[in-house]
Amino acid sequence: MKPFIKQSLIVVCLFFFAFQASAQATKYKGMLQMSNYNGLEAYVVVSLIDAKGNAEKTLYMMGPDEKWYNGFKDWFAKLSKKKEKLNAITGASVAGGDRSTFTFTIDEAKINKGYKIRFESSVEDQKNYISDLEIPFTTEAVTKKTDGTGYIRYVKLSKVQ
């Protein structure tokens, strides 16, 4: 093989593997415990928030009926315009006192870069909590139990191997 072609192939392969390593997606499993509140089942949206506080991506949606998504004022204003496909990342809404498990995938290159994982909760005819719970996306904080401030009692995430 000619040296130029051989070198070109090596460069292309190195670039491909470097790109794959930098865009490594990691799966997380979460357990959400709701507080004991009175009312209908809560809808919860899990979003990736960048270092400037902007919603970047929807990671998971607890609540199957799209007609109620506009109750999430912050999420709806910022992410619904992106026309994200939520079919594969939706689950059931969660009643007061109940637990729910869920999984989502996130680009590991964003860890320790100022990102947060935000849980916004909403119950029909009650208050909406835009930042019911926020977990800093850092190696230290992401797998710690984090307490909520509204309908969510706490969330615990773990990396899926």
From TrEMBL:
Protein name as catalogued: DUF2271 domain-containing protein
InterPro entries reported for this sequence: DUF2271
Keywords: Signal
Pfam family, one: DUF2271
Signal sequence coordinates: 1-23
